[in-house]
Amino acid sequence: MKQRMIIVVGPSGVGKSSFVDRAVQELPYLVDVITYTTRQMRPGESEGHPYHFVSQEEFSQLVENDFFVEWAHVHSNRYGTPRDQIVAAWDRGSGVIMDIDIQGARACINEFPQLLSIFIEPPSLEELRRRIEKRSEFLPKDFEIRMENAKKEIAAASEFDCRICNDDFAESFGEFKKIIEEYWQNG
Ligand code: 5GP
User: Which of 11, 59, 144, 175 is most buried, most CB within 10 Å of its CB?
Assistant: First the structure.
């Protein structure tokens, strides 16, 4: 059984979820892992889209039950990657793709060294700030924390297999898809 995994890393607001969503639409052998979080649902989100939303108590119970491959404090909340969805996808012959923070990415690289890691970077920090301000009707409560974390994440970009600058999405996605297709054929 091939255990193919793609992790998409990069600062909050850079567009990682758009890359993952489009990849799942265009590459039917990929499954998006629905991760777990303790953060509040935002308008337009619902259970399972894009997360399983759980309470602090439920999350702690899942940690105790060894349910997660990795989990981390990200910005002001906890997020965790469930092992069961990954194993189920591999059993069916699919590969998994997930959007994950840098701590989770390092843990996954350690546990699954065969994975493909793709870092999405913004054209600049100023452009990242502009995009987040423009796209949200309201700013995330922890917006400034996210911007501080973005600097640290960008500084760590060279740890990953590939880097793609999300300047023009259609063009960047083309590059992203090509890298995944090569990994799928050769991995
Ligand atoms: P947001 O709250 O904006 O949806 O996501 C915050 C960050 O959490 C994103 O950078 C995302 O990549 C990361 N994230 C989502 N799920 C997981 C997970 O299961 N584990 C880790 N370590 N990070 C995650």
Answer: 11
Q: Which domains does the chain have, with CATH numbers?
A: 5-186 (3.40.50.300)
Short-list 25, 35, 31, CA closest to 88? 31
Q: Can you give the pTM of this predicted structure?
A: 0.95
CA of 102, closest atom in ligand 1: 22
Q: How confident is the model over 14-25, as a mean pLDDT?
A: 96
Report the separation in Å between the CA atom of 79 and the middle of ligand 1, taken as the mean of its atom positions: 6
Query: What's the burial of 44, exposed, middle or buried (CB within 10 Å: 0-12/13-18/19+)?
Result: exposed
Would you call 20 exposed, middle or buried from its count of C-beta atoms within 10 A (0-12, 13-18, 19+)? buried
